[in-house]
Recover the amino acids of this structure.
C-alpha cells in the first residue's frame, strides 16, 4: 500500500492541523487520541511515511525504528503507567479496522482494561 500524504497524521506531522501533544523528539510524535477509549489514550507515530508496522520495519532506518520504540516506552513511563499497567495496540489493514494509514501505536491506560479482545 502506498503512503497517502493527505492522511490526517501526515497533516499533523506537517503542522497543518493541531494535535494535543504529549511528547516529541526527532523520531516520534505522541498526542492524545481525539476520541479516547480509556482515561489515558495516546497515539505515538513515527516521523516518516510509513503505513503499517510491516512497512515500517521493512523500510525504516534502524535508528528511526529504535527511536520510535524508545518514544513509546518513554511516553508510557512519563504518563505513570508502568506500575498500574497499560496496553499497546497497533491496527494494520482492513481486518484490524485501521482507520488512519500512518503507523501508530495506541497506548491505553488509567483503568483496568479487561480481556485483550472483545468478540
Ligand atoms: P486506527 O483505527 O488504529 O487507525 O485508529 C485511528 C485513531 O486515530 C482513532 O482512535 C481516532 O480516534 C484517532 N484520530 C483520528 N483523527 C485524530 C486527530 N485529528 N487527532 C487525534 N486522534 C485522531
Amino acid at each position: 500500500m502506498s503512503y497517502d500524504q493527505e492522511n490526517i497524521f501526515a497533516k499533523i506531522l506537517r503542522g497543518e492541523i493541531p494535535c494535543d501533544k504529549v511528547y516529541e523528539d526527532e523520531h516520534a510524535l505522541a498526542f492524545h487520541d481525539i476520541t479516547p477509549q480509556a482515561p489515558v489514550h495516546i497515539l505515538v507515530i513515527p516521523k516518516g511515511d510509513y503505513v503499517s508496522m510491516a512497512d515500517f520495519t521493512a523500510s525504516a532506518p534502524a535508528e528511526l525504528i529504535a527511536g520510535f520504540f524508545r518514544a513509546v516506552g518513554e511516553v508510557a513511563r512519563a504518563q505513570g503507567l508502568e506500575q498500574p499497567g497499560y496496553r499497546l495496540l497497533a491496527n494494520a489493514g482492513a481486518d484490524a479496522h485501521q482507520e488512519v494509514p500512518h503507523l501508530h501505536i495506541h497506548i491505553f491506560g488509567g483503568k483496568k482494561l479487561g480481556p485483550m479482545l472483545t468478540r
User: Anything to note?
Assistant: The pocket of adenosine monophosphate is lined by residues 8, 19, 31, 33-35, 43, 91, 97-100 (CB under 6 Å).
